[in-house]
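From the pipeline queue, job 12 of 40. The input is one protein chain; the requested action is below.

Action: predict structure.
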Amino acid sequence: MSTRIPLASARPNRLSLAVRDSNTMLRRNLLHARRYPSMTLNLLLTPVMLLLLFVYIFGDVMSAGIGGGGADRSEYIAYLVPGLLLMTIGSTTIGTAVSVSMDMTEGIIARFRTMAIHRGSVLIGHVIGSVVQSVMSVVLVGAVGVAIGFRSTDATALEWVAAFGLLVLFTLALTWIAVGMGLISPNAEAASNNALPLIFLPLISSAFVPVDAMPGWFQPIAEYQPFTPAIETLRGLLLGTGIGHNGWLAVAWCLGLAVLGYFWSKAVFDRDPK
């Protein structure tokens, strides 16, 4: 007499398989990043250098322009750091696109397809690994900001938690988009080029100057792209400035990009290899 295994008892096995394989892929990606840190360091240097450049070279001029004539570099540091934190996320996720493209073109994905592993664990490992690296990069850039004078004395514990949650959610959204860019790229160079908007968009946001100071025809573009609402929300949480509609707009952008990136990446990854 045969014994039937209830369906409910099979589900934990599939879930445990997915968790186990995703954890293995996460360790693989973190080990790879530790052995080859040059790309992460190069991408991380961009926001750090921009932070130092705009504070110590352009700081007085930018402070005078934003402050209505009074040069106060400390105010500009406070204005600048939240935008640079989000730019750091965009820079770091470019490495994810390159890493995914290398896996696709160097044959390791084809090897994984022949093994008894959870199919989605490869992408999940890349995503979680990128989120971990991005958070570490944000902490480092934030430490540089604190070292040169950034202070957030008015933020409550709840606002700090909300700020951290926003950074993680924004990282998750951009990472899934970067994974999709890496999957469609024929090589690592193309992946890096495809992911350039993740660095370019912060430059045309409110990261460096207020949207109101931009040309009138350009203001809607700067105001409603993904980075500006997230930057203004982070400023509001850390500095006590007004958030307004930027809070729900930032969350909407994050959720929309995460869902879009996930289904895009899944569709590309599930295609049969040519």
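Job complete. Residues 73-105 form the longest helix (33 residues).
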